[in-house]
Design goal:
The structure holds two protein chains of two kinds.
Chain A: E1 18-19, H1 22-31, H2 42-47, H3 61-72, E2 84-93, E3 102-115, E4 118-128, E5 134-144
Antiparallel strand pairs in A: 1-3, 2-5, 3-4, 4-5
Chain B: E1 15-23, H1 25-35, H2 45-50, H3 60-75, E2 81-88, E3 101-112, E4 117-126, E5 129-130, E6 132-140
Antiparallel strand pairs in B: 1-3, 2-6, 3-4, 4-5, 4-6
The chains are: A alpha+beta, B alpha+beta.
Chain lengths: 154, 142
């Protein structure tokens, strides 16, 4: 199924703010087995120059993915969500996400292509803090595989 | 941001200490809860096999989170990461056999950049197969 090309370049309004808490950062760090004190101890984080505990680098995906979910679920885009796998992921950080941040995500569809029956969607999520400063950008490639092309991956 | 490794101490080819990260079903349930990704292919064997997978597989984002630990453990400051990207090339299959899977990660300085930054190329394998492609991070050193 071809993707609706009119979606390319489309940006969505910013999400409601996500408030980053110390205990959420601790929970995420524990879930990935990460023991660095900068994720749990504000003093250790300050010793590294951060105002409060910082999140592991991939934590921000939990926020951008939620925002992306609203975009890719739009039936007009034509992406078959049941066949979607995560093809690639990239982040650029202005600074680490930290406790106390109130983050909003603005999602943009950068590309939507179809090759050999599979659909590819490139989504960018720009993450801003409460003062409007850019904190990080996430790029996600989603792949909806051709119906006869085996199974999902990640 | 204060990385404990100095820019002047590293050369192209400098190898980072490698890491070995075990993954069990328990790990995936915890990651599902912490990340909010409850896709059943990461915890429900029946569902995973019905959609054609060999077994339950790890979240790609879990593998991505483990792989960067080799870099952040090396620099000593998880906030020193400037860029990080991967392709998800093969799933990490996690059997329910009490042992699960292991992700082995290594990294090497591939390029010295301006502004005391370096590019690290990361290799992540599980069961002898590469699970991430083009895994690269840019970090700012001290």
């Amino acid at each position: 199924m071809a993707l609706d090309q009119s979606f390319v370049g489309r940006s969505y309004p910013p999400t409601a703010p996500y408030e980053v808490g110390r205990e959420k950062i601790r929970e995420f760090a524990e879930a990935i087995g990460e023991t660095a004190a900068a994720h749990t101890d504000p003093e250790a984080a300050k010793a590294l120059g951060h105002p409060d505990v910082i999140a592991p680098p991939t934590f921000v995906f939990t926020i951008t993915y939620r925002a992306a979910g609203e975009v890719i679920a739009d039936p007009k885009l034509g992406l078959d969500f049941g066949r979607v796998v995560h093809g690639s992921q990239r982040f650029a950080y202005v600074r680490p996400v930290r406790a106390g941040d109130r983050l909003t995500v603005t999602s943009t569809i950068e590309a939507a292509t179809t090759r050999a029956g599979s659909d590819f969607v490139d989504l960018r999520g720009d993450v801003h803090d409460a003062s409007g400063e850019l904190v990080a950008t996430a790029w996600m490639k989603l792949v909806a595989r051709a119906a006869d092309d085996g199974a999902a991956e990640a | 941001m204060t990385a404990k490794i100095g820019y002047d101490e590293v050369e192209v080819g400098t190898e980072l200490p490698a890491g070995t990260f075990p993954v069990t079903r328990d790990t995936l349930v915890r990651y599902a809860g912490a990340s909010g990704d409850f896709n059943p292919i990461h915890w429900n064997e029946r569902f995973a096999t019905e959609v054609g997978l060999p077994d339950v597989i790890a979240h790609g984002m879990f593998t991505m989170a483990e792989a960067i630990r080799v870099v952040t453990d090396w620099t000593g400051d998880p906030g020193a990461v400037v860029e990080y990207g991967v392709r998800f090339t093969k799933p990490v299959v996690v059997p329910n056999d009490g042992r699960g899977a292991v992700v082995e990660v290594s990294g090497k300085v591939a390029e010295k950049l301006a502004d005391r930054q370096v590019r690290v190329d990361i290799t992540a394998t599980s069961g002898g197969q590469k699970v991430l492609g083009m895994a690269r991070a840019v970090v700012r050193l001290g």
